[in-house]
Amino acid sequence: MIWEYKIVFVGTETADEDEYETRLHDGVHLLNELGSEGWELVAYLPRQMASGFARYHVVLKRPKGGG
Predict the structure, then answer these.
(1) 36 closest CA partner among 9, 12, 2, 60
(2) Which residue from 35, 37, 41, 56 lies 20 to 30 Å from 66 (Cα-Cα)?
(3) How far apart are CA 21 and CA 19, in angstroms?
């Protein structure tokens, strides 16, 4: 099987509780949307920035030609 891959930015760390909840639910919505297009989450990439905050990306895959 031949796979295609996608890396998607899903958020930046925040100390604000309300903003965190919003970002969390937005991320779940995005993953559900991508899942309905045939994408499967295969890796999670946190990256610590010089600012002290972290950025987050996910790696997804699906069969080539899917979705």
Answers:
(1) 60
(2) 56
(3) 5
Cβ–Cβ under 8 Å, residues 4 and 40: no
Tokens for 18, please give them. 């309300």
Q: How remote is the C-alpha of 19 from its chain's centroid?
A: 17
β strands within 1-67, DSSP E: 3-12, 40-48, 54-63
Strand partners, 6: 60
pTM comes to 0.77
66 confidence band (pLDDT: 50, 70, 90): low
| Domain count across the chain | 1
Q: Give residue 37's domain range.
A: 3-63
How far is residue 17's CA from residue 61's CA, in Å, rounded to a whole number?
31
